[in-house]
Design a protein that fits this description.
By secondary structure, the protein is α+β, with helices and mostly antiparallel strands. The chain is 55% helix and 13% strand. It is elongated. The protein has a 6-stranded antiparallel β-sheet. Strands 12, 13, 14, 15, 16 and 17 form a 6-stranded mixed β-sheet that branches. The protein has a 3-stranded antiparallel β-sheet with strand order 7-9-10. The termini are far apart. The protein has 33 helices and 17 strands. The longest helix is centred in the middle third of the chain and has 32 residues, at 277-308.
Length: 735
Amino acid sequence: MIGKVISHYRISGKLGEGGMGVVYRAEDDRLGRAVALKFLTDSYARDTQAVERFKREARAASALNHPNICTIYDIDEYDGQPFMVMELLEGETVKNRLALGPLPADELLDLTIQLADALDVAHKRGIVHRDIKPANIFVTTRGQAKILDFGLAKLMERAGRKALAVGATEWENTAVFAEDLTNPGTALGTVAYMSPEQARGEEVDSRTDIFSLGVVLYEMATGKEAFAGNTSAVIFDAILNRTPPDPVRLNPNLPAGLDAILNKMLEKNPQSRYESAARLKAELQRLKRDSDSGRTAASDSGRTAAADAQAERSVAVLYFENLSGAKEDEYFRDGMTEDVITELSHIKTLKVFPRAAVLAFRDQPVTGPQVGQQLHATYVLTGSLRRAGNRLRITGQLVETRTGHALWVERFDRELKDVFDVQDEIARSITQALRITLSPQEETALASKPTENLQAYDFYLRGRSLARRVTRTDLEFAMQMFERAIELDSRFALAHAGVANACGEYYEWHDHSDRWLEKGTTAAENALLLEPKLAEALLAQGRIAYAVKRFEEGIKFAQQAIKRKPDCDGAYFVLARAYIASGHPEKVVAITEAALAANGDDYNVYVPLMVALERSGDKEAAGRLRQRCLETLEQQLSLVPEDVRARILLASNLAWLGRNEEAAQALQIAIALRPNDANILYNAACTYAILQNKQEALSLLKKLDEMGHLNKGYARQDSDFERLHGDAEFEALLA
């Protein structure tokens, strides 16, 4: 359709597609305005009943002139396909908003008041929507709610019409388009948002929409569905017979009194619900008034306390939600989040939690206040991003843990090239919301960009994500990504450091050719020339030193990198391995907490920490750490199932925990995927040793030794080989 002219509408792009319809953006050549064209999909366009419902939607909505109902301009036909012309809305559905968890109290009250007002107008025209749900409620960029999709709308019975004082002429005009197209006794609507009377296939009226709106309000308030289940039968049973969990228990920051309103909206008996949407709207407005008054009083009394607590302010930045749903965008989402954390870390008067502290909450249905309470953070920054071609939409919200109130909310619709400006704006907006005055040094740090070339930055993020996996193939791809970034921006210091780190890993595990050392050393020097204080460049030198068994030098560079940047990616991993290889596992035990606080989101760092704890004899602490590592690995594999290093480490952890069958399965998959990869083979040998399969373990260790990739100093200290200690063949191999 794109590029076609339909009647006097020129189609310029596709906006979305659902089960029944496709929506396009178009320009109205006559009136010179942007509109949306909605077509039925091919299969439904051949369905007479579906076409009638489609036309009914257009007629029903066009009869309702209200700012909170999507305006229908026209209905027409093209090549045998009906289509409707609607106002073009900029924003997103409540369904998409809920992907980030519950809405702030102010916002959910504002939206529900608007929706109640729209339903009041529809009901007074004798029209019941019958399918109120998050996907049918749109929120514009200006915060205006719009009800969509009147395809299931139905006129109420005459008794209801008389009660609502709808005039006879108006009724006759409306009845032309709103006759019911379903059989009596048929349940119609979206299962999880149906009223009990809909679930039973009974007659519906305005109170049906009030119940469904209550289900939506419950979800906006708690982030949880009111009636959930794996099958329609289970959901029907919940709607008919069960009461949803107390919303205040799920979100203690809800305004007092909202639970009472929700309970009345969700009454099973329609007679017990609000008699009209107008009455519901009045109750919501009263609650909002009371809530605003209480908040003003609390804000006034809390100003002095807030001023006294300036030095104690802390913020936790949750991983941004990837709304595109594309797995290949995960690296970008993670990089964006980590860069915002780094930006905020430049502000000395603000304590910023490292990314490891928030890893457990990534992609979890939690609210900002819930996270803040668990971490003891004063504020929590939540956000989402959606990438489509060159466009980037980022939302951010700073929530105060104690009150649950949003101090700052913003949405950025930008070109992808503006991503650094958005990061800078988010950081500055937070400082303004918290009344923080930036020093000149902090101003400079916030204004600095890693590169002016966004494509180079994108290649760098891809490379960083791949390099963490250590395998030959992943490191080769990572170096290609870093080198492409350097081609686009030769002064991109982080990309040079990325090459150096990857060369150190590659030399250690895959190819002892001097060219990797030379290439890595040159890249590290280039990075330091461009940015003399770059932590990642110092770490690169430490990684190369470790690879050639200059352990003391590796320790020194890793320590310098950590001093410059405490959460420098991979720094604690190098430091801990160098301590172990040089015979000082006790020093690893001493840095364990700091390492986890800074790099606990990287599954690699757990490996030397667990080895050191096992060697120290603290089996209980090692077991706790192993369980935490297992959770980190499982989360990584849920996001990146092709990560073979994560899978082989998962195998060894499962073996330690006695889950031998699962361990053997993960082990076999990893070896099948990378049969000649030294890193995978070493960890496979570890797993076989834990499973007490001595011959397989020794066979792989010998193979590694022949390949020249057996680090004997590290292997001798590795607790995974504990059961082989004293074995003549094992001892001879490591001699």
